[in-house]
């Protein structure tokens, strides 16, 4: 494999610093709906699933998956929706309640900082910041196009219409409060019928927590001597969503520089990490996201004492379609 060399400026263009994240407050159909109108959406790598032309995209090149984030103040929630491909979250800051089902009452689970949730495809899901401060969750979305958008529960579309936002069948939002209207020949997004809704399962909480949730401190114990395999064919959460996820801690860092033919995204959870590569070095802080290209030699090491962890995501040859379902 031919190895690469990147200058510090070239690598910095592949790093999205937490403090430089640009939010969008009008990303989705529930942007005016009370209880959901204070959330912020971040598109870090790839186009994401935003329905707003105002969404800022930090890195447009996709490695076979998308990276995004959601930031919300306390008691703010994201409305019930579904995706056609994987949606994986880990909690960077705060305490979050995830809930699912047609009406959001089929089950729920509370995630603490570092916990990760590989949400099954084909179910309606939502989430809420139940902490006391502004919270942030990081997201990995399957596919280069993130599955072709969001599928909203019918009541979400109806509630949004009452507060001035109309979603077109093209997936674009129109704000009637600003005098916008659907173009001629363009219809509103149709509501799912009762028959279509039968295809969205209501999963029991016990099965979801057992098969789709991994707790941070369990993963840290597994990562004591080698990377903890979190999501993958032979990982703790056995799934093949088009990418694999590992957690690296202080004791599981590769001793030498390494090269891979896969795209690799580093998402720092705790601590500061020194990243050295053929051409330079830098320090990654909590919340930073770094897209390392195939063929580039790199080495990782915590730059300070104390707790250190990061999630490492790599693309696989698995198709980014529906993965595990209920």
UniProtKB/TrEMBL annotation:
Gene3D superfamilies the record matches: Jelly Rolls
Residues annotated as domain Cupin type-2: 74-137
Alphabetically ordered keywords of this record: Metal-binding
Record GO terms (molecular function): metal ion binding
SUPFAM superfamilies: RmlC-like cupins
Source domain of life: Bacteria
Pfam entry (one): Cupin_2
Protein name: Cupin
Originating species: Salinarimonas ramus
């Amino acid at each position: 494999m031919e190895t690469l060399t990147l200058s510090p400026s070239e690598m910095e263009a592949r790093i999205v610093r937490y403090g430089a994240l640009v939010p969008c407050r009008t990303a989705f159909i529930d942007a005016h709906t009370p209880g959901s109108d204070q959330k912020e959406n971040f598109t870090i790598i790839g186009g994401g699933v935003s329905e707003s032309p105002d969404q800022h995209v930090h890195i447009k090149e996709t490695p076979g998956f998308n990276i995004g984030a959601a930031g919300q103040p306390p008691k703010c929630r994201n409305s019930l929706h579904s995706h056609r491909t994987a949606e994986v979250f880990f909690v960077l800051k705060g305490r979050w309640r995830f809930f699912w089902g047609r009406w959001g009452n089929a089950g729920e689970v509370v995630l603490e900082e570092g916990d990760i949730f590989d949400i099954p495809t084909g179910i309606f899901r939502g989430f809420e910041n139940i902490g006391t401060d502004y919270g942030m969750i990081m997201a990995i979305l399957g596919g280069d196009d993130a599955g072709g958008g969001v599928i909203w529960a019918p009541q979400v579309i109806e509630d949004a219409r009452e507060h001035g936002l109309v979603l077109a069948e093209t997936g674009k939002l129109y704000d009637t409060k600003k005098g916008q209207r659907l173009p001629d020949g363009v219809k509103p997004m149709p509501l799912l019928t009762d028959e279509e809704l039968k295809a969205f399962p209501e999963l029991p909480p016990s099965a979801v927590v057992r098969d789709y949730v991994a707790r941070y401190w369990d993963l840290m114990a597994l990562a004591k001597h080698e990377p903890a395999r979190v999501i993958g064919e032979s990982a703790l959460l056995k799934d093949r969503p088009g990418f694999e996820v590992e957690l690296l801690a202080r004791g599981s860092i590769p001793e030498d520089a390494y090269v891979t033919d896969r795209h690799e995204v580093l998402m720092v959870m705790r601590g500061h990490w020194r990243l050295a590569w053929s051409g330079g070095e830098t320090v990654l802080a909590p919340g930073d996201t770094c897209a390392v290209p195939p063929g580039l030699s790199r080495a990782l090491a915590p730059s300070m004492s104390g707790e250190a962890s990061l999630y490492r995501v790599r693309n696989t040859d698995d198709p980014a379609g529906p993965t595990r379902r209920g």
